[in-house]
Amino acid sequence: MHADTxxxxxxxIAIVGMAGRFPGAPDTESLWTLLMESREAIxxxxxxxxxxxxxxxxxxxxxxxxxFLDGVENFDAAFFGVSPREAAAIxxxxxxxxxxxxxxxxxxxxxxxxxxxxxxxxxxxxxxHDYELLRIHRGARPTPHSLYGNALDMIATRMSYFxxxxxxxLTVETGCSSSLVALHLAxxxxxxxxxxxxxxxxxxxxxxxxxTIGLTHFGGLSPDGRSKAFSKxxxxxxxxEGVAALYVKTLARALADGDRIHAVVARTVVNNDGGGxxxxxxxxxxxxxxxxxxxLAGPAPIVPSYIEAHGTGTGRGDPIEATAIGEVLGGKxxxxxxxxxxxxxxxxxxxxxxxxxxxLFKLLLALRHRTVPPSLHAEExxxxxxxxxxxxxxxxxxxxxxxEGTLHAGVNSFGWGxxxxxxxxxxxxxxxxxxxxxxxxxxxxxxPVVLPLSAKERAVLATRAADLLAAxxxxxxxx
Length: 479
Description:
The chain has 479 residues and is α/β, with parallel strands linked by helices. Helix content is 32%, strand content 16%.
C-alpha cells in the first residue's frame, strides 16, 4: 500500500488535543522533563504483573525489566457509564483509551457532548490480548462482558459509543507501526471529508509474560535490559507500556474554529516492504521508498530538522534504518549540518503498538520547545553505521533547533510484518504560535480569588484541585 503524498495546503492536518501516559511520565509535561533530564524509566517487572522469581521458560532467561505504567487497574467506571461488573471484565487497554481520549478532548477544549451525532472518527493502534490471557490463566469463565471487553476492535468502538460519534471506528493492527498507521488513516479520512474530526491513539500493556517469553525466543529483547539505539553495544530492545491520544482536524477547520494548534501533520506515508529475506526482516528498499515519498514527493521537497527513528537498538535493524535515512535525507547536508536522529525507546522502552505515538509525542514536544532531547546509551556508536558519510549525527546531547521559522521533523515506525509508517510534523502557523497577551491584572483587593472547578465525584474534584495547584502554585493559602 502506498500513500498519495502530493499534498497541498488544503491537505494539512492540525493536532489540537493531546494526552499521554508513558513509563515514568503520567502526562506530557513530565515526559518532557524525563527526556530532557536524560532519564531512563526501565524498572523491574512489578510484582502485580508476574513473578519473575520463578522460571518462566525451560530454555531461556526471560527479560525481567520493562517500562511500566502505574495504576493500570484503576478506572472511573461510573464516569464512563460502565457497571463495576462489566469494568472488571474489560481489558484495561479499552479503559485507558477511554480516559486518554477524554483527556485529549479536554486538552483541545472540545466538549465531548458536542460530538454526539457528528462524523468524528476513532482510530487506535493496538496488538496484544494480555488481559484475556490473564483471565484464562486465572481460571475466569467467559462472559458476554469478557468477550467484547477483550476484543481489539472494541478499543476504538467503545470510545465512539461513549461519545455517540458516527464516523468510522477501527482498531489498527500492523505490529509496531499500528498507531502511526491509525493516524495515517485518520488523516486520509479528514482530507477526503469522510470525517470532520478524529480521535487517534495507541495503547500497549504488559499484563502477562506470554508475549515477553515469545519475544525472547524471537531474539528481539536485550539480555541486559537496555535499549541502546545506534550504539556499538546494541543488542535488542526493552518492552514498554503506554497509552496516548490525539484530537485532530484539518488545519483549515482548526484555524476557523480558533483552536490552539500543537503541531501540523504535513505528510503521512504508509508502505509495505513487499518481501525480503524473511517475513520479519526489515527491508532497506522499503525504508528508502517510505522516506522518499514522505520528503521528496509532493509540490516541494521537505527538509527535516530531526528524525525520530524507529531505533529499536538491534544489531541488524539500526544499520538498515540509519543507512536509509542517510541515503535519502542526510547525504547532501555536509559535515557542518548533519541530520540529527534519536530514539525515545532508549528512555522508556519499545511501546510496540503505541511506539509510533511515543515517538510522535517526543516530536510534538521537541517542536514546541525547539529543542531535541538527548538519545541515551550511544556513548560509543555502532561501527557498522558510517554516520559521517551518511550526514547523520545521533543526538547524544540536547540539540537546539532554529528559534524562528517553520520547522519540520519526522518519525519512523516499522511493523514486523513489513508495514512501515512515517509522519512529518511541522510547527504551527506563526500567528498561532504567538501567545495571546495576558490580561491586565485586576487591582489587588486582598480578597480570595474564586476559581471554579467541577467533577462528578468529590475525590476526583480534590485531585483536580491538587493538580492545578501543582501546575500553577499560588501564594498564600488555597482552600
